[in-house]
Automatic annotation (TrEMBL):
<feature type="domain" description="OmpR/PhoB-type">
    <location>
        <begin position="1"/>
        <end position="100"/>
    </location>
</feature>
<dbReference type="InterPro" id="IPR005158">
    <property type="entry name" value="BTAD"/>
</dbReference>
<keyword id="KW-0804">Transcription</keyword>
<dbReference type="InterPro" id="IPR001867">
    <property type="entry name" value="OmpR/PhoB-type_DNA-bd"/>
</dbReference>
<dbReference type="Pfam" id="PF03704">
    <property type="entry name" value="BTAD"/>
</dbReference>
<dbReference type="InterPro" id="IPR027417">
    <property type="entry name" value="P-loop_NTPase"/>
</dbReference>
<feature type="DNA-binding region" description="OmpR/PhoB-type">
    <location>
        <begin position="1"/>
        <end position="100"/>
    </location>
</feature>
<dbReference type="InterPro" id="IPR016032">
    <property type="entry name" value="Sig_transdc_resp-reg_C-effctor"/>
</dbReference>
<dbReference type="InterPro" id="IPR003593">
    <property type="entry name" value="AAA+_ATPase"/>
</dbReference>
<comment type="similarity">
    <text>Belongs to the AfsR/DnrI/RedD regulatory family.</text>
</comment>
<protein>
    <submittedName>
        <fullName>BTAD domain-containing putative transcriptional regulator</fullName>
    </submittedName>
</protein>
<dbReference type="InterPro" id="IPR011990">
    <property type="entry name" value="TPR-like_helical_dom_sf"/>
</dbReference>
<keyword id="KW-0238">DNA-binding</keyword>
<dbReference type="InterPro" id="IPR036388">
    <property type="entry name" value="WH-like_DNA-bd_sf"/>
</dbReference>
<dbReference type="Pfam" id="PF00486">
    <property type="entry name" value="Trans_reg_C"/>
</dbReference>
<keyword id="KW-0805">Transcription regulation</keyword>
<dbReference type="InterPro" id="IPR051677">
    <property type="entry name" value="AfsR-DnrI-RedD_regulator"/>
</dbReference>
Amino acid sequence: MTGLAVRLFGQVGAVLDGVELNLGAPGPRSLFARLALSAGETVSADDLVDALWGDEPPRTARSTVYTYVSMLRKALGDNVIGSRVGYRLAVLPTAVDLRRFENCFRDARGHWAAGDFVGALTASEGAVQEWHGLPLAGAVGPFVAHERDRIEALWVDVQELRCSALLAVGRPDEAIIDLSRLATANPLRERLHELLMTAQHRTGRAAEARQTYDRARQALDDELGIEPGRGLREAFALLTPTVVPAQLPHGVAHFTGRARLLRELQATKPGATAVIDGQAGVGKTTLAVQFAHLMAPRFPDGQLFIDLRGFDPIAQPVTAEEALDRMLRALGADEQQADRGAHYRSLLADRKVLVVLDNAVSAEQVRPLLPDAPGCLAVVTSRNRLSLDGPRFGLDTLSPAESVALLASVLGADRVREDPDSAGELAVQCGHLPLALRVAAERIGSSSYALVDMVEELRREEDRLDALTPDDDELSDVRAVFHLSYKSLEPTLARAFRLLGRHPGAEIDLHDVAALLDTDIDAARDIMTRLVSQHLVAHTDSYRLHDLLRIFAAEQPEPEADAAVQRLLECALAAAHDARAALTPGLGDIVPGVTCPHPHPIGYDEALAWAGERLPTLAALAKAAADRGHDRLCAQLAATLAVLCFGTGHWAMWLRVIDIGLAAARRTDDQLNIARLCNDAGVAYHYFLDDQEQAVACHEVAAEILVRLDRTDPAVAANLAVAHTRLARHKGSVELLERDLADAREQGALFLEAIAAFNLCELLSERGESARAVEYGQRGAALLRQTGARHRHMLGYASEHAGTSLLRAGLPADAVGYLEEALAIWRELANERGMASATRSLAEALTAAASPR
């Protein structure tokens, strides 16, 4: 029946389209109430008899039920449906006010459990709106008494939850009247008295709250002979005189930098936990204390600070129980509770307190200490990454500008302005680590040192940590601070940290880690992840050790160090060898059969990208090999890097590597690699420094050695021919290159044939034989294109040679296409030298092509 509404609060009844229906005497009205309680469900005749008469029904009970049903049908029509099973009131549960009441209460409890106090308040007020007086009024029978007791108990639960929600959302004054009435009506229900005391306390009625407690305590003693439970006792504890702790340590002098992080920290809302983590000495405590002093006015009920000593050199970390005892005393608690955590949270529940937990070692140490109160804010600092809910602020070293600003703040701006170069270098030597910068600045300020004197003292890595060790302050000793983090490592991680200190590069990839640790990639990744979580290693695209941490790690005794470095060098050599073969196949092996258990990508594009990223590290490894006596590996690695440096345009780096490799090769009298590296130097002098005299001298040394060794090398011969031609010295250069060209063609070596062709192009173009130069230039470019997408850097050189030869031959329009191709390749490869030379030649070609003849 559309529009039927059922009322079980107040007088039992039904309304159809705004019109009250006549349900008759109490008998049929009671049967209607029983059917409404099961709206939409069938109720058997036996259940109806039990509901109306209980255990002693009259003999005419069933016929009376039929009579009542008949009477209800007159009023409700088809909404009362009978069957062999029983009878059903055909309405939805939502048409019954009691069911709506129960549904709202169920929703309110769900919101409360989820911490949604506003939602709990809205839903519970919805339940209150459904209540319209005594339930089931006008109905009779045993079921009425039972249901009425249940519903009235539910009504008290609804009001209790609503008042709890009012307190949770900060509206205690609205809850007091209802709580007073409820507490009076239910003198043994402790939760109602607890809520009433809380509301009275929050509205400044402490005396009334004490009276409430006294009445509840007396009622419990009189009726049950028991003392108040924990909730009531904790509510009473809040009425004691409030102690306002002010435990923040003094802020550090000359606080500098961290402006962005301070702004982000200040945006953290009360009720949250902000976690500041980072490596030792990076300034976590300094930042936390600076932030806490800025925020202190917002937390008038006090500021708690406790050093949890997670990395103390002597004492064990503070336990949660010890920390709670200290904080409870600071909050004025005059007795130890069995459950310290609950008492601590109760004391903070209505306060605005800032809690700073410094030097935490784990989330388990911290969790019991978090206030979990809407008006409080917790700040946690740790060297480890803690799995705590709330915003995380990862603290890195200072920027170069911030580092210099810190020095200026401690030393005075004038001293830094007088020697900005030394200030910048000192910042780099300190790794932009705030602790190290402060120690260095304090040493300068307390002595007759100038900035440049400290820079000179720190220049030697092996002495750097000694120079950053103050005489009278162990907490500021950089080495000692690092040692605390190192000491906390389990043996596997400690070994890994020591071996990583032997890596000379700024960037460390997983292949390096696996080689150093003599393990596989997955195990290496797991170990590095754990070191990152403890802020001993940083991770972006690769891994990094802070410079001072690397020095510290290398200081620690490690019996496997030399073997680990040798594994690292051998794997780096194998990876570079694979990349060299992918970039320039056919040049022959530097070290035949060299392999690494952790292979790298070997396609052309992968090899070119890998070389561009890894060359700085490979160059550092070459130097480390020389420094540590691995001269054979140093020379081999330097010779292998030639193609990688040439292909990526790292000319200055290449010259440094050549110098290191040549010195190592000469120490071991490695004649073959002396020849290779002299040849490489000739190419670098020719292309990069444009020093043709020096280029020829290097090529001649290489050629002389190769002849003596009875070895031939097409690359050496080609480069020697070009160098001689540039100086007009060697008339047989063309013949040499033509022989190389024929040999490569006979072997089917497209790549070597292309190199010979474009070298012939350059040589003939220099000699003024334009027609032949054009022929070989176009041929070299065409051959390289046949290799597909590989060898882009060599195609760049070939296209540029072809274009310049056409330009010199008086064919500028034909030259444009080749030069545009070369310029596009150099841009793609970010080769600045190539872009500059191709741009100049292209501009010349375009100008000449546009000029009338």
